[in-house]
UniProtKB/TrEMBL annotation:
Class of enzymatic activity (EC top level): ligase
PANTHER family noted in UniProt: ACETYL-COENZYME A SYNTHETASE (PTHR24095), ACETYL-COENZYME A SYNTHETASE 1 (PTHR24095:SF14)
Gene it is expressed from: acsA
Native organism taxonomy: Bacteria, Bacillati, Bacillota, Bacilli, Bacillales
Tagged with keyword Nucleotide-binding: yes
Keyword Phosphoprotein: no
Superkingdom in the source lineage: Bacteria
EC number, UniProt record: 6.2.1.1
Domain AMP-dependent synthetase/ligase: 51-422
Record-linked Pfam families: AMP-binding, AMP-binding_C
Cited InterPro entries: AMP-bd_C, AMP-bd_C_sf, AMP-binding_CS, AMP-dep_synth/lig_dom, ANL_N_sf
AMP-binding enzyme C-terminal domain segment(s): 474-552
Protein name stated in the entry: acetate--CoA ligase
UniProt KW keywords: Acetylation, ATP-binding, Ligase, Nucleotide-binding
Length: 575
């Protein structure tokens, strides 16, 4: 890295003080003072996110702008308060109690956000699902969690095998076709129930350690794991959103993530609303035109998205950007996957802003490592630990590795939004804490002399070739720098001589076609830019790469295809 590569902060007066200062003075205890429960002792995430603002000057402030191909709506904090009160009453009327799991299985819509808050208000636990899940994926999650109710749509109902799920007694449908009750379940019409429910609700006050949300996440093997978070997580959601997203009252914030993914709840719902910010939610599918016009239409100021989206926007070319007025943007962030330095430099060129990468996991509940608006940014790095968070790079025995060396990325326990359990899987939960005092992320990373953390890959994605340990991300980033390459995924393929050889899968940009010359050029590019041992011996061009719904390239699936092995759980794979 050259010093000239470092990007200086461009945001004026960020909420967060300079990094060293913020770190030196930080205490999670101080953050608690932001919440009403600090005074009243009455805890509930939904109260802090919505009702609290509805009782202040923010009551007529827009909490949510929602639009898709058919709808275009907005809701103030006060409207959200009353709508979620109504939904809380709907749930109470049908007998939902504190601690019950209530799932959401529908496309993004205002009803999703109203439901989340209503579920929380009666002390129940939210279980978000991706609308694209097929029956097996839905079944696994509802079965494991013993969900008692689900909010879904008539179109998705065939994928809810309620007859085989003895706990699932209540099905609330957003849409007109509501079946008759049968011996397995009662059916309700969302609109009708809402219309009949009272706008006044006694919130169920809970303990900070009471369950709040259950996010299922897939590992490389086995069934999806139910990661449980508690109301206490709000401390982290609030403070990270304030300092990393840099939310201010005049901001219009757009988190592009679906609530089926933890980013779409921690920072698509809780973080912004705890800060009293206005959120934009856009339904429907991704297209560069649609996204740029969304920014233009709402004058979005802060935009939180993912590398896969930025790479697709980059591949769509720079010209299209001239057709939109994106001048409202002042802050851009990315999460979910490694953000290639190339993308950061491109972002600087076309948006005039730094794209701030940050790192966390479903299990961590909130951001733990980030590039902050108040700190110089090193493109390709995930940034530095959040104040109050201690990160270390450990070897297999739990010893700290020297700066610059790649090892296991671990976090000193604990922090406010850490998961509290893996639902009905104590053994799995314990694996994360096998090194006493540390949370083991399962990612590989290194830390440089300045304390910036660099991503290496998932532990299980590491390649051993001719005795060298190679992380796929470096090679992928090098490949993406090549003008022909839109996306790249690199795996290790067993080889008798070398242990593993490096195989690269690439998707090409429009206008480029597969050829031996191109492959040679890609190899030369990696060799000259990185190292001879990092050169992919095999390169395969694909139309697209398999990804999760949150945009992560599924290297394990490519590897399984390559080796003719079972692919494991595919429920989170994009269509
Ligand atoms: C990966 C996402 C590189 C990582 C909020 C992690 C990243 C997993 C980054 C968690 C990043 C997330 N750079 N890799 N900035 N952010 N990851 O549970 O492997 O969907 O362990 O949560 O995504 O993914 P999850």
């Amino acid at each position: 890295m050259n010093v000239s590569d470092i990007l200086q902060p461009v945001i004026e007066n960020p909420n967060m003080p300079p990094y060293e200062e913020a770190r030196a003075n930080f205490d999670w205890k101080d953050v608690e003072k932001a919440f009403t429960w600090h005074e009243t002792g009455k805890v509930n995430m939904a109260y802090e996110a919505i009702d609290r603002h509805a009782d202040t000057w923010r009551k007529n402030k827009v909490a949510l702008y929602y639009s898709d191909q058919k709808r275009d709506e907005k809701y103030t904090f006060q409207e959200m308060k009353y709508l979620s009160n109504r939904f809380g009453n709907v749930l109470r009327n049908i007998g939902i109690e504190k601690g019950d799991r209530v799932f959401l299985f529908m496309p993004r819509s205002p009803e999703v956000y109203v439901s989340v808050m209503g579920i929380l208000k009666v002390g129940a636990v939210v279980g978000p699902l991706f609308e694209a899940f097929m029956e097996q994926a839905v079944r696994d999650r509802l079965e494991n969690s013993e969900a008692v109710a689900i909010v879904t749509t008539p179109a998705l109902l065939p994928r809810v095998p309620y007859k085989d799920l003895p706990h699932l007694k209540h099905i609330i449908l957003v849409g007109d076709e509501v079946p008759e009750n049968d011996e397995h379940a009662n059916f309700y019409n969302f609109e009708e129930e809402m219309a009949n429910a009272s706008e006044q609700l006694e919130i169920e006050w809970v303990e900070r350690e009471d369950p709040m949300i259950l996010h299922y996440t897939s590992g490389s093997t086995g069934k999806p794991k139910g990661v449980l978070h508690v109301h206490n997580a709000m401390i982290q959601h609030y403070q990270t959103a304030k300092w990393i997203l840099d939310l201010k009252d005049e901001d219009i914030f757009w988190c592009t993530a679906d609530p089926g993914w933890v980013t779409g709840t921690s920072y698509g719902i809780f973080g912004p609303w705890l800060n009293g910010a206005t959120s934009v939610i856009r339904g429907g599918r991704f297209s560069p035109e649609d996204w740029y016009s969304t920014i233009e239409k709402y004058k979005v100021t802060i935009w939180y998205s993912a590398p896969t989206a930025f790479r697709r926007l980059m591949a769509a070319g720079d010209d299209i950007i001239n057709n939109y007025d994106l001048s409202s943007l002042r802050h851009i962030l990315s999460v979910g996957e490694p953000l290639n330095a190339e993308v950061v430099h491109w972002g600087k060129k076309v948006y005039g802003l730094n794209i701030h990468d940050n790192w966390w996991m479903t299990e961590t509940g909130g951001i733990l490592i980030a590039n902050y608006p108040s700190m110089p940014l090193k493109p390709g790095s995930m940034g530095r630990p959040f104040p109050g968070i201690e990160v270390a790079i450990l070897d297999e025995n739990g010893n700290e590795l020297p700066r610059g060396q790649m090892g296991s990325l671990c976090i000193k326990t604990d922090w406010p939004s850490m998961m509290r359990k893996i639902w009905k899987n104590e053994e799995k939960f314990k694996e994360y804490f096998a090194i006493p005092g540390w949370y083991i992320s399962g990612d590989l990373a290194s830390m440089d002399e300045d304390g910036y953390v660099w991503f290496g890959g998932r532990d299980d994605d590491v390649i051993m070739t001719s005795g060298e340990r190679v992380g796929p991300f470096e090679i992928e980033s090098k490949l993406v720098e090549h003008p022909a390459v839109a996306e790249a995924a690199v795996i290790g393929k067993p080889d008798e001589v070398r242990g593993e050889i490096i195989k690269a899968f690439v998707a090409l940009k429009d206008g480029y076609t597969e050829s031996d010359e191109l492959n040679e050029d890609l190899r030369r590019h990696v060799k000259e830019g990185l190292a001879a041992h990092a050169v992919p011996r095999e390169i395969e061009v694909k139309d697209s790469l398999p990804k999760t719904r949150s945009g992560k390239i599924m290297r394990r699936v490519l590897k399984a295809w390559e080796l003719g092995l079972p692919t494991g759980d595919l429920s989170t794979m994009e269509d």
